[in-house]
Batch of 2 targets.
Target 1
Amino acid sequence: MDIFSALQYSFIRKAFIAGSLIALVCSILGVLLVLRRLSLIGDGLAHVTFGSVAIGLLLGLQPSFVAIPVVMASSLGIMKLMQKARLFGDAAIGIVSSIGIAGGVIVAGLSGGFNVDLFSFLFGNILSISSVEVVTSIILSVIVLSVVFLFYNEYFSTTFDEEFARITGINVKRINSLLVVLTGITVVLAMKVVGIMLTSALLILPAVTALQIAKSFRNTMILSSISAILSVLVGIYSSFLLNLPTGATIVMVNFLFFISAFLSGRAMHIKLS
Amino acid sequence: MNASNTGPILSVANLCFRYGPLEALCEVSFTVEKGDYIGLVGPNGSGKTTVIKIILGLMPPGNGTVSLFGTDPSAFEERHKIGYLPQKLTNFNPYFPATVKEIVSLGLFSKKKFPKRILKGDAELVDEAMTLTGVIDIKDALIGELSGGQQQRVLVARAIVNKPELLILDEPTTALDPEARENFFQLLRELNLSKNVTIILVTHDMASIGKYASKLLYLDKKIIFYGSFENFCLSENMAHYFGEFAQHLICHRHD
């Protein structure tokens, strides 16, 4: 089946639209997180998402609506731990991540197990995305992208040299808090695309792919975005054709792009030297 | 060269600071006039970087007052008047994908209101700073591809892109070889003499301070000496702190 035939299915169209937008948001934030050595914040917040989903299911609420505020609060918690408890980012992420998983397991135990397919939350299923979820994804993605666009230079400056950014009058604390809150929203969105277990891949892989060949900061953002969107489109289409799990296929396509970029980068380096 | 009709650029009065139980600064007072080129020296742990961070508004003073262009540093808004070159980039990532031009442009943001955007007219300022520091030919290179000396020049360009009135440099030459260090000091002298940029240079390089700076501020939690080199060379008790040979070497070079 060619891509135009596949596009006749509304679930494919919805998956393409929502998946591309979420991938775009992940790729932009991913560059900032990777360069700040906070790559695993996506993983940690995804674990909190697991706990939030469990709470939502226990209370009979829409899991995403519970997850967004809880994950946003957790992301700020990571920031506070780093600032107040003098912890490195990885340790702070590790604490919040463990609490998220432990909380989820306890809630699941209290409920006596959930009568839903937890598998879909753990590994995602973008092909089953509803129209409401597509609209929610579009709105939240536009909000996140707008904020990053408006504060692009503040993010560039604080990511490169936080101390200098402060001296130039940038409110670094506010900018950093905003970044982790945006990451929290994005992680919840990404849960539908690749699932809780693979969310960090959407944040990390496009960014590190771009870093292999990028020639400037702006160029890195653009390449990361292209890589992420193409991975989602190719991943969704391939999984549909080959009857493979969509989230995992998207991640594997992302990885193939990374390998290609890595080899291209090495070839360019050898050619130059 | 140091005379000014507009009062001191920087005034520090009775400044004290503690890191928990450890005293870092005690009753430090000094003023900096427009056009001064001050060498801030002292042993490790003498409070040099602490003073700089308080002046820049990165840390609040414990006791005492600091006035930067007549304003408290924490409330100081005309950030473009200050250029800062750190001792080293905190958490510097050698694989950071930023070009020389992009990094120099970062210095412009102290002048800009929200949303901070680089406009067409800004390119001239960036090119001028890169030309002055000799990095214009490598403007499209990634920062990680450069040598330590070149990276330092890029950071100087970032610090001076706004044409600051006060340039603060915290041990900027530690990663440089002797030739690059000499070139770097020549560049600072050029900025001081031809652009009338006031300079505060934190360094351990006493010989270069003696050669280029107009004043010496020796700090060891409190001020041991602050004044012109002429007075420094005439001061007998300075030999007690520096050693007779070092004092002679510095004064000799300065002359």
Target 2
Amino acid sequence: MFESLSEKLQKTLRNLRGLGKLSEKNMKDGLRDVRMALLEADVNYKVVKDFIGHVQDKALGREVLESITPGQQLVKVVYDELVRMMGKEAEPLRLSSEPPTVIMLIGLQGSGKTTTAAKLARSLRTRGHQPLLVAADVYRPAAVQQLIVLSEQLGIPAYSDENSNDPVGICRDSVQHARRSNRDVLILDTAGRLHINDELIEELRRIREILHPHEVLLVADAMTGQDAVNVAEQFHSRVGITGVILTKLDGDARGGAALSIKSVTGQPIKFAGIGEKLDAFEVFHPDRVASRILGMGDVLSLVEKAQGTIDEKRAAELQEKLLKAQFTLEDFQQQLQQLKKMGPLDEIMAMIPGMSKFKGLQPQEQDVVRVEAIINSMTKKERQLPTIIDGSRKKRIARGSGTAVADVNRLLKQFQQMQKMMKQVRRMGRLRGLGGGLNFPV
Amino acid sequence: MNEKNRVGIIARLRTRLSKAREGFAKRVRNVLRKGAIDEDVFEELEATLIQADMGVKTTHQLVEKMRERVKSDRLTDAEQLYTVLEEELVALMSQPSTDAHSAVQSASPHVALVIGVNGVGKTTTIAKLAHMHRLDGKKVVVAAADTFRAAAIEQLEIWAQRAGADIVKHKSGADPAAVAYDALAAAIARKCDQVIIDTAGRLHTKTNLMEELKKIKRVLGKLDPSAPHEVLMVLDATTGQNALSQARLFTEALGVTGIILTKLDGTAKGGIVVAIHQEFGIPVKFIGVGESLDDLKPFAPTEFVKALFED
């Protein structure tokens, strides 16, 4: 869907290859592409302006030192600066040495606070904590009920008060409740509100003043556009935030809001929501979102997900094969099985750079079973050399797998397309490795 | 809607839209209207349009068009330029939907399928829609086909009660298509005028969840081949360029007939609907400007465009 910035820059700067240095003049077109890419990724207009100025200074300063092509040099400077601005390393939660720790979640309506509260609680429990969810959204119909249902799904207690419509009082009482029941982290799920609603902002300030939370986390939607700066600025200056959780990163939004929010508040982005399931939650990785903003895919996230499920060696093999496109139908079968273990296939495929261009090719769970059956009905030779599969072989395979010849044809075609796609991925990977001067995390 | 009522709504909308409008919009008007047209005017124009989430492509097209108009119409005054631009945008946003996106108006019961990504305000919007139809004296059934999100059914139930609409629901986790089917069957049996179907929020990139929506549409077609008569995509005004992808994929799957732009009572301008209108020909039908039942308004292009530039 998007032409990646690397592809674009490669085109723009092709005729500059070999010049070996950046000047204001030859960088002009390249920087224009960078600017467009950032704006298309929803980075705020003013933030982009500052960023471009900054990159220009940096790139000019280093022009003679490096002898790679101008395009590579520029991409590297842009990428490094993006990562640096978004915080280099993931920052951990601040937990109090004297429990209970109080974590307050705030944000606009629909940013995903309630789901995030549950995900955060789950993540804290896996790290040995005893969280308590606090239902402080007394405004949205059934919001309290929603948190209670999630808490029951997780088996993590929730504190609510049916008789109270005072969020400040509920939060205050919840601390007592946590002490009595030995819970060491409270997660306050507050109601969604506009950053310009004085009355409701005042309510957050009061909760903050009374409870002195150790973290006040702004929950922000990764799909947010230019307004992200206003929202973040207002919540930060009027309530005061200590960090950000970016939600809905499992879609195809480029996530430029991350850079906008970070630059106007200076507060770190700590976590990312990456799916509807309660375990779809991870530490925020600035480097990955930087590649995403630039349209360079998310191979690293994919590899990490693989590592969590498969062992490390097989993950490395998988990555290698994905990138080198050296796989046979046998590997294809194995990979489908491995991918299945990693989670819903559409989520996995979304992480592969360039995959968005191959809409419709993403395998469906139910297809996998059929595909396996078809491959199982092939001879070893057929799996290694699919070109030998002629009409009569197809008939045999279809009979053996209980499918139709059309299914076999579809699989073979899909396999061919998959190989093409992997070549594409490899091309992008090669660009990153070009000249050896680029340190992209692949 | 009588004239007095209409003026009241516009005035109210304006107050809502203008709430806490600060910064660039005001500045732009000043720059735009300060006199002679120079490069600064175009630059400021670009800044305004992009910051309203109109997107790089649409912004550049508009700015180029304005450059041409300045030449062809011999515009000299920035105020004139502003007026021309406003007219241009109003004309674009007033265009009816292209054939591919047209809704069926006369059907009884009329079925509206409401879709969108997570957290855009579908359930609240459905309550407002139900309320609007109720004020028109119609009998309304809402279908609780968001069987996925915890307590979504309870949320819709509370709203339906407030709006005075019937609700058809199953248990949490049930097949959404079955809920939709039952709701339409019930509406036919009870001779209701309007069916509004709530669906679970889903990212447009999740193929399996998009299939689920297609199934809802298919199943409705069994009771009434022309149903759903309207497919409304709810879009959060704070959304950036991703809204284009949402519009594209939801349209491919279901044929979106209109957009409801929510949360316009914040500081976001929702300019991406201009790009969506331009690219796909999908019109905006309603806007959401608050949390109470009567905070859903028919889309008014002139008001919307003015709000893009005014503080």
